[in-house]
Amino acid sequence: MKIFQILFLVVLIIPFVEIYLLIQVGGVIGAFPTILLVVFTAVLGAWLLKQQGFATFQRFQESLARGEVPAYEMVEGPIILVGGALLLTPGFITDIIGFACLIPQFRRKIAQYVIEHYLVQAGAHFQQRKEAENNVLEGEFSKEE
Length: 145
What we know:
By secondary structure, the protein is an all-alpha fold. It has helices at residues 3-29, 31-65, 71-88, 92-102, 104-134.
């Protein structure tokens, strides 16, 4: 299956699962505690988003000051944003995934995977294209009729 088909199925299925879980949890602990739990995770997620975002931005600036490329911080930034958005979305599955994105050790592993499997391969492909362009022979061409 293509990535967009999988993403479409996930976006379609997750809300139904979230609603089912909210109803089940509401049946066990009550409607009001369930609503409070959802609001609490959203507030906690916003606080963690702010804290982790500032910490990552500070590491980004420190890397630049040392003259290093802040590769991990540039990949961690969008992961933090996705985690924060998922925590602000009502539901328990999105909260679990959102909290996982805001745990620094787990986020570092995701960033490392993305850098090694996607960015390094893209950089190698770009380098091969650049080398192929350097193998061009310069010359003049004229067409005689």
